[in-house]
Amino acid sequence: MKVLVAYGSKYGGTAGIAETVAEQMRQDGLEVDVRPASRSLKPDPYDAVVVGGALYRNRWHRAASMYVRRNRKALRDRPTYLFSSGPLADAFSGHNPPPVPEVRLLASRVDAREHITFNGCLPAKTRRFMDRAVASTLAGDYRDRDEERAWAHHVADEVKTAATA
Question: Of 21, 25, 54, 73, which shows the fewest CB atoms inside 10 Å?
Answer without folding.
Answer: 73
